[in-house]
Amino acid sequence: MKQNVIKKIIEKYLSHKAILIVSKIRHKFRLITQRLIDLLLSPFTLIFAIIFRYIRKNKLKNFPLAKKIFLHIGLLPIIDYYYEPLFNPKHLRYSLRKVRFLPGIDFNDAEQLEILSKFSYNDELLKFPINKSNNVLEYCYNIGAFLSGDAEYLYNIIRLFKPKNIIEIGSGNSTLMVRNATNKNILESGDYHC
Is 37 a residue whose pLDDT tops 80? Predict the structure, then answer.
C-alpha cells in the first residue's frame, strides 16, 4: 500500500527521464545490497555446505531431525555425483537447451503418454506404507533405495501388462514392489502366473 502511494507521487511530480534515473539507481542499489549480503554470508555458506555434504554422504535417513527440517523448509542437499540430479554445468559438453540429434533413440512420446493414461492403480499404491514396518516382505516408500517414482512406475507396468516372466536385478526393494504387483495380478486373475 505504502509503495503504491510513493509510486503515484513519483509519477505525478517527476518527469519520465527522472523516473528512469530513479529506477536505475534503485536497481543498482538492490544489486549492490545483494552482492554485499552474498559476501557477508559466504563464510556461513561454506560451513553449512560442508555440514550438508557430510549429512548427505552419510545418508539423510541417518539424520531424521535434519531431514524433517529440510523437508519443512523445502530444501534437500544434493551432491555432485552420478546418481544425483545434474546441477553442475561443468559436466555438460553442450547446453541442454540446444536441440540434439539422437538417432538411436525414438522417444515415441505419443505411445508413452498413452501408456501413462492407462495407469489406474493409484488407490493400490496409496496403501503402501511410507515407513518400514515389521513385515520384511512389505514394500515401503521411505527405504533409501528404489524410491517413489520408479516404484510406482514399475508397479503400474506390471499391473497393466501382466508379464509372464520378469528378470529382476536390484537391491531387494524393487523385488518387493514386483512381488506386490504380481500378487495383485494373481488375485485379480486366478490363471495369471509369473
Answer: yes
